[in-house]
Amino acid sequence: MYVLFDVLHLYYLPQYLPVQKKLADQGVTTAFVFYHSTHDHIMEQIASENGLQYIWVENDKEAASYYQQQKADWVFFANSFAYLDDLHQVSKSAQIGHGIGPKSCYYTASDTAMTVRFVEGAYRCERLRSLYPESTFIDVGFSKLDPLFSDEEPGFDMAQLGLDPNKPTLTYAPTFYPSSIECFDKNWPADFNDFNILLKPHYFSIAKEKYHRQKALLEHWASFDNVYLAKETDYNLVPFMASSDILISDASSALFEFAALNKPVIWCDFLKLRWSYRGLFSYRFKKRMDEDFGEYANIAVHAKTYKELRNLVIEQYQQPQLLAPIRAQLAEKLAGRLDGKASERVVAYLMNNAKFIIDPQYENLR
């Protein structure tokens, strides 16, 4: 069997790598398709560290041409792909989500049908089936979290990061939009000097010129002695989750992934919204969020302003059991089975469904 992984963005890798490792254990040949960007050297370093085979493409059209040549059994995607009809003449496609947050795009990503989409939990699986009854959805869990539940991820050595191993550790993991970054106090790490602070922003916050103000703030915060700012090679949230006692975030998938570990999270309700999302246009923000947004909000305590943040962090750190039952309930709804075996279930499906026949006119896949 031959499996390819389409890596349009670096942050797709944490979902792919646990699956790739399980495939390699089974002797399956795999390769990654990277898209050229300003961060090619980062991708090459990560590929080298993980022993990955890879090739480079300029865009999705070039990727599609490569897939036509390779005729792999399966090609993985983390989002939609414009050339699925061409791909399906020679290969099957598999979609695996790159986040479990409250954004509505989680569901619209299935507008174009892959051969199969691997889904996190029975609730989301059934909801997707009701929206797209002609498509195939398989409940496997969330592969990104497998290393945490199988004890394969030890986390960071705080001393090596220049932090104090005797302090509790919090991670601040905001998304790029809508984000809380611009609403934090300029010197907020000083207000939390009794904590180690790990800053793990979304990749776009440090990689895209559009968000240069966010990057400037992050780099300023990194100058504090109790702060470590993720490097470009720290693409994976998993080591941060393994190392942290508590997490601060906003409408980010990170918040739900951390809660799935049954650790406390603080949800920042204070966000920097573009003018086109405010006032009369606030419906656009609501449209961007999933219809279950309100229920998911119960998984965390909410800071309505920055001034509330310190007291909530202390409360949740000292009493992590306060929302534990709710976290456990919603984590299953968001992430499915949390047993470290999501990747195994993905690989089992791939291997059981790898062989297919193509008729001479490429009209039907069976």
Question: Care to describe what's here?
Answer:
The chain has 366 residues and is of the alpha/beta class. It folds into two domains: 2-148 and 340-352, Rossmann fold (3-Layer(aba) Sandwich); 152-335, Rossmann fold. It contains 17 helices and 13 strands. The strands form two sheets. It has a seven-stranded parallel beta sheet with strand order 3-2-1-4-5-6-7, with helices on both faces. Strand 8, helix 8 (188-191) and strand 9 form a beta-alpha-beta unit. Helix 1 (13-25) crosses helix 17 (342-352). The longest helix is centred in the first third of the chain and has 13 residues, at 13-25. The two termini are 17 Å apart. Mean pLDDT is 87; it is low at 274-283 and 356-366.
How would the blueprint of this fold be written?
Layout: E1 2-7, H1 13-25, E2 29-35, H2 40-49, E3 54-57, H3 60-70, E4 74-77, H4 84-87, E5 92-96, H5 105-108, E6 116-119, H6 122-131, E7 137-139, H7 146-149, E8 169-172, H8 188-191, E9 196-199, H9 203-207, H10 212-221, E10 227-229, H11 238-243, E11 246-249, H12 253-259, E12 265-268, H13 282-288, H14 293-296, E13 301-303, H15 309-318, H16 324-335, H17 342-352
Helix pairs in contact: 1-17
N- and C-termini, Cα separation: 17 Å
Q: Give Rg in angstroms.
A: 21 Å
Approximately how much helix is present in the residues?
25-40%
Number of helices: 17
Kindly estimate the percentage of residues that lie in beta strands according to DSSP.
15-25%
User: What profile does the largest beta sheet have?
Assistant: 7 strands, parallel
Structural class: alpha/beta
At CATH level 3, the topology of the largest domain is Rossmann fold
Q: Into how many domains do the coordinates divide? A: 2
Q: Quick one: CATH class of the largest domain? A: Alpha Beta
Query: How many β-strand runs?
Result: 13
pLDDT average, as an integer?
87
CATH superfamily of the largest domain: CDP-glycerol glycerophosphotransferase, C-terminal domain
Pfam family, one: Glyphos_transf
GO molecular function, one term: CDP-glycerol glycerophosphotransferase activity
GO cellular component, one term: membrane
Protein name: CDP-glycerol--poly(Glycerophosphate) glycerophosphotransferase
